């Protein structure tokens, strides 16, 4: 039977991880401790996709007699779940610095909140300076959290070989994400020319490995599956990551703004090299779209025109087909996993594919 | 007998560490691999103070029959030495992003070199954009190196308890450095008021722990010293860090520019809250110095005037006295260590105090 992991239980673990970090700064300057508290609050309130996926899969994969319990007592499973979410948050901190963003999940991000809450008085008008300082703080707190994630993996009370497997996985996830983010920045600054293959690889690297491969394979390793079987989960992770990213691109262009919480056509405004743009570039519609690409100030009329161009040039249906095709590849891979897993595993994983394919936010 | 560790041997290990990182990016976009090569070249050419201190001390502390060999074969000692230097380099990358610096050790830093070498053509005039991209790259490569340092400590082929001791030490060094850098930024942006105690604590946190405590204690732990004895090295590390920082402040104000490679009065130009400034603030000379504080464009006459004010207000002799006093505290602590160490240890450590006290660059 699939066990629904409570959000509050994961939140509790994330809080505990921040508590550990804050305790280490005992006696140090209160402004740093305050910044950490703001970071903890910013880290909470997400969808917890990654730790949830890890815990749900672990729950159905692990032998009931051999399972790490995560109610009440300390367990490596709980710690890994929190570390996976905090790794995601640390990446967001550095991404927001790099992209100059102040909004995340539809609300002020850490940088924005820290800058606001550090106002010395109501007639303090050094907004730009405080934002710059808050960005520096986001670099430093991201570093501290990245270090803490490693400390958790490095200290797991497991046989050394198993710890090394998990460390390999963490290393792989971090390396991929960093290369992906580097390519993303390089593409948007024009330092890599926007080839479709590069755009797709960037998307996969930046998100898929740490969002899907890391939780899925960590669950398989913790449940005692051998490297060959864990590798099947890695393959699925890569496909799920693509599905997630394509759906993201689709929502940015054609989704309901109220549901996904970003500006309409935010990717176009930011000049972001998505799959939809890579396709549109090769069509006759591109010269008409290009003037708007990277233009932050689009009016309603511009938006209507761009959307229509993306439909008529075939980019919309191309992306829909790609999403459907990728979802099929995911289901095929789940079949392969079914061969060696308990019956609840394909149920859980197919439900995940359904939710990714149909998500609206 | 004290063994002089060759610079080339340490350089070799640092290169090997970068080689490992670069190998992990095999098949990925060449521009990222190129950036890593530039990072490797930027990381080399330093004074190697930290790994040298670690290796020199390990060499005289360790029981000859029980020593890890680091000629030829893989040894945790070699790996730790490289990781200590690469940690330093990762901090420099993020510090340079935070401070907006393009010069390091008197030559173009990683950011500056990457921006320059990524010029697509000679008539590429997007200098500001390329610098911004290079700063983003410095954040990402700093993250990757920080992760690699943790991987090295986490994977050391040592008894788990010993590995945990080293992980504690790494954690402590990173936490202190990050809090110190946070305080430094907060002081220079005026978000923490410049109290002498905070300025001193900032200096200690930012540099002392990872520069002295980490190498000294790592050597003690690797040589098999118990936590109580290792703690005596930690105390010495804190004092050496203060000595180093005070000497740095002194050189910035009164040193020979040609020898230390920074602009004359660079700390004053940058509005940096050093011990010398904290002292001067409490004197009658401050209203005369303040107009120049944080002013990047000082002429020869300004510089002459500020230096004279720092002498007449007593800041110079206060700093000289503080340096001499701190050096004495270091020598007292070395006496304590002498009680339980081989005879070469105080020789090595006292020579270090002499060189820090008398350094000109």
UniProtKB/TrEMBL annotation, chains A, B:
InterPro entries in the record: Isoprenoid_synthase_dom_sf, Polyprenyl_synt, Polyprenyl_synt_CS
Q: GO molecular function terms here?
A: metal ion binding; prenyltransferase activity
Task: Give UniProt keywords alphabetically.
Answer: Magnesium, Metal-binding, Transferase
Q: Which GO terms describe its biological process?
A: isoprenoid biosynthetic process
Q: Which cofactor does it need?
A: Mg(2+)
Please give the pathway this protein is involved in: Isoprenoid biosynthesis
> Which region is the signal sequence?
none
Q: Does the keyword Kinase apply?
A: no
Q: Which family does it belong to?
A: Belongs to the FPP/GGPP synthase family.
Protein name stated in the entry? Geranylgeranyl pyrophosphate synthase
Which organism is this entry from? Answer: Corynebacterium callunae DSM 20147
């Amino acid at each position: 039977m699939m066990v629904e992991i409570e959000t509050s239980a994961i939140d509790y673990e994330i809080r505990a991880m921040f508590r550990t970090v804050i305790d280490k700064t005992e006696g140090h300057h209160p402004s740093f401790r305050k910044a950490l508290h703001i970071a903890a609050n910013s880290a909470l309130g997400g969808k917890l996709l990654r730790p949830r996926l890890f815990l749900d899969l672990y729950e159905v994969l692990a032998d009931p007699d051999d399972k790490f319990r995560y109610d009440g007592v300390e367990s490596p499973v709980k710690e890994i779940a929190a570390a996976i979410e905090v790794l995601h948050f640390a990446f967001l901190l550095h991404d927001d610095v790099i992209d100059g963003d102040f909004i995340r999940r539809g609300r002020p991000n850490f940088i924005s909140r820290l800058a606001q809450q550090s106002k010395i008085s109501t007639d303090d008008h050094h907004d730009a300076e405080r934002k710059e300082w808050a960005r520096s703080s986001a670099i430093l707190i991201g570093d501290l959290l990245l270090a803490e994630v490693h400390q958790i993996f490095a200290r797991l009370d497991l046989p050394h070989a198993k710890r090394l497997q998990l460390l390999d996985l963490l290393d792989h996830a971090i390396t991929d994400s960093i290369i992906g983010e580097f390519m993303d920045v390089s593409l948007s600054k024009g330092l890599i020319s926007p080839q479709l293959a590069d755009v797709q690889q960037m998307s996969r690297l930046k998100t898929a490995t740490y969002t899907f491969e890391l939780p899925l394979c960590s669950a398989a390793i913790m449940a005692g599956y051998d490297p060959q079987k864990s590798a099947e989960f890695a393959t699925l992770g890569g496909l799920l990551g693509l599905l997630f990213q394509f759906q993201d691109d689709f929502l940015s262009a054609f989704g309901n703004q109220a549901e996904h919480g970003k500006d309409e056509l935010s990717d176009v405004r930011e000049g972001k090299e998505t799959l939809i743009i890579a396709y549109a570039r090769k069509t006759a519609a591109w010269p008409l779209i290009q003037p708007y690409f990277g233009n932050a100030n689009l009016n309603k009329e511009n938006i209507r025109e761009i959307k229509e161009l993306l439909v008529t040039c075939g980019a919309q249906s191309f992306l829909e087909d790609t999403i459907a095709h990728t979802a099929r590849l995911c289901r095929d891979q789940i079949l392969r996993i079914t061969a060696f897993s308990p019956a609840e595993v394909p149920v859980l994983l197919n439900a995940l594919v359904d939710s990714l394919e149909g998500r609206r936010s």
